[in-house]
UniProtKB/TrEMBL annotation:
It catalyses: pseudouridine(1915) in 23S rRNA + S-adenosyl-L-methionine = N(3)-methylpseudouridine(1915) in 23S rRNA + S-adenosyl-L-homocysteine + H(+). Its main location: cytoplasm. Its EC number is 2.1.1.177. It is found in: Cytoplasm. The keyword Hydrolase does not apply. S-adenosyl-L-methionine binds at residues 73, 105, 124-129. InterPro entries: Alpha/beta_knot_MTases (IPR029028), RlmH-like (IPR003742), tRNA_m1G_MTases_N (IPR029026). This is Ribosomal RNA large subunit methyltransferase H. Homodimer.
Length: 157
């Protein structure tokens, strides 16, 4: 199985990008992992929030294969602790799917079409974080999940 993280817009903080790169490299020891950035929309000044979500949604949906299982990261999604998240990952790996795709939307969230296509919604916290920070948190939680599944000590450090 491949795990893919899709996100809108590049990370412009070099320290944050360095941490993302570190966890991405670590994660590669456990699972095939891809991190794909969808470029920020240009000329959004004249777009409403709904129009921006619609355009971003089209870009997100255009990156999916018909067999992908897509999970959106959403403030109203299901919250899991790290152990339950590791079990969530294991369940998906056991199901035989080819690709599990986690999606971090733009600043206004997702279009109705993305929600409709989603196979689930997860929330990393009730708090609001920047979209750039969520990338790091998600990749770290994926890494943590695999270390839990392998009974490695990282989770308890």
């Amino acid at each position: 199985m491949t795990i893919k993280l899709l996100a809108i817009g590049k990370t412009d903080h070099t320290d944050l990008q360095s941490l993302i790169d570190d966890y991405q490299k670590r994660l590669g020891f456990y699972v095939k992992f891809e991190f794909e950035i969808i470029p920020d929309l240009k000329k959004t000044k004249n777009l409403s929030e709904d129009q921006q979500k619609q355009k971003e949604g089209e870009l997100i949906l255009g990156k999916l294969n018909s067999t992908d299982v897509m999970i959106v990261l959403d403030e109203n999604g299901k919250q899991l602790d790290s152990v339950n998240f590791s079990q969530y990952l294991q369940k998906h790996m056991n199901s035989g799917i080819k690709q599990l795709v986690f999606v971090i939307g733009g600043p206004y969230g997702f279009s109705p079409e993305v929600y409709q296509k989603a196979n689930g919604k997860l929330s990393l916290s009730k708090m609001t974080f920047s979209h750039q920070m969520i990338r790091l948190f998600m990749i770290e939680q994926l890494y943590r999940g695999f270390t839990i599944l392998k009974n490695e000590p990282y989770h308890h450090r």
